[in-house]
Each structure stands twice: as C-alpha cells, then as structure tokens.
Amino acid sequence: MKEEKGEDDGKANPWTMNSESTDPDNEKERPVRLYADGIYDLFHFGHARALEQAKKLFPNAYLLVGCCNDEITHRYKGKTVLTDKERYESLRHCRWVDEVIPDAPWVITPEFLEKHQIDYVAHDSLPYADASGAGNDVYEYVKSVGKFRETKRTDGISTSDIIMRILKDYNQYVMRNLARGYTRKELGLSYVKEKRIRMNMGLKKLKEKVKQQQEKVEEKIQTVAKTAEMRRNIWVENADRLVAGFLEMFEEGCHKMGTAIKVRIHEQLKRQQSMGFIYDDYYYDEEDDDGYIFDDSSNEEDEEFVMI
Fold it and tell me: Residues 6 or more apart from 21 whose CB is under 8 A from it?
C-alpha cells in the first residue's frame, strides 16, 4: 500500500526524520523527498511523463504528489471534468507516485514544506499565478530558496487539448451516447437540439456516402483508363507489326506478279514470232503449188516467172 497523508501504523517512518539529523548512516539511507503538485484533470500520459521525470531526478527518491480539491480548483482555475476524489484515485494508480497528498494548497509555503519534510519541488518552469491576483508565481518561494527542480512538459497533449477535441466533435459524441441508450435529458439536450443534431448527423453520413461513391467511380474510371491505355499500346504494337508484315507481303507479291507478267509477255512474244515464221513459209509454198514456176532456161540476169 502506498503511504497516505495522516496514516500512522505505529512504526518508525524514515520520511518524517529531521533532515538535519547528525547520524551519517541515516542521512545516506534517507531518500530525497520530492514534491509535485497540480490539478491532474483527465489524467493523461503528459502528466505521467512529468511525474516520471520528477521521480528520476535522484537515484533514491520518494515522490509525493499534491492534488488540489474541487473548491480551490474551481475558484482559481475553473470547472474540472473529474471530481477531486476521482483525480486523487487516478494519481494513486500511477507507477511513479509514492504518496498522494489530497487537498493540496494552491501556493506552497514554508510551513507546508516543513510539515511534509519536502526537499525539492518538481514542476515545469512556466509561471503560475498565485491566489493574490497580483500575478505572482506560486513557486516563487521554492525558487528563491533553491528547492525548485524543473521538469519538461510534453508537447501535443494537455487536459485543455482533450476537452477541445471533445467540443470539436461534440455532435458525434452526443449521437454515440444517444445510440448507446443515454436520454437527451441525461445529455442536457432540448427536444429541438436533439432533432437538429440527428438531422445534421444524417446529412453528414449522406455526404460521406456520396463521397465514397465518387471515390469508387473515380477509381473505376482510372482503372478503365489504364486498361484502355494498355490496350491502345498493344493495338499500336500489333498494328505496326501487321502493317510491316502487310507491306512486306505486298512488296513480295508485287515482285512475283511483275515477274509473272514479264514471263507471260515474253512467252506471248515468242509465240507470236513463232506463228509469224510458220505463216510465211506456208504462204509461199501454196503460191508455188498454184502455178508459179521458176524458169531455169532464162538468163540469170532476166529471170522471169511465167504464168501457166
């Protein structure tokens, strides 16, 4: 069990020993008592990291964590989401915390440090206004006496950021809780506001569906375009190949046809020449047979043909 304020089991408590003890052995064994305070509303990992840094400031450290109650917190800072009891309980379940001090004061005083035997106070270095309203730093005293040890804040996370996220998506969280069985009265909604939220959420869902359909259509269009581009490239490649093949076949065919035509013309000419020679021989033989005679008795100079 972690030690709580006011508990006394009758045993000697090393944490309540006087820091000015003259026993050197006790001084060596005594842990350094560190104190960290805050509101710790909606306890998150940024809180845990700050407490981890405080715990690790010294090799042998005992970390006390003070948490302000609702009355003082609401007065100086504002309304919290969790109650003070819930915030105390959240701190008790943090592994770095050795002791939780409820109802912690807003401003750390010398009396408070002495009461809890606090050696150092750990917190980030930002100034926090005290209860005077004059803008003084609540850690002004511990800084002045050299008992302040700085820790670093975690960027990107804070209780205010978490609340802003909820407010930003307020309608969605309301609809989620209505769907889980919460009534509009439990959520602090009027009848008109509930209907307005439902209508707005319905329109939002419709827009999301339309957007999804548009994305699907665009995806299909891109797919078709890619397919068409691939097919066009294939067609172009095939067309080039087919045209080249056709031209090659056409050229070969034209060559063969030209050769064949030349051969036929040459054969025709030969045939015509051959038929002309035969006709001439036949004509002269026929004339001779029909009455032309050659007179061998005539002179060689005056050769005559005599009709019979």
Answer: 27, 30
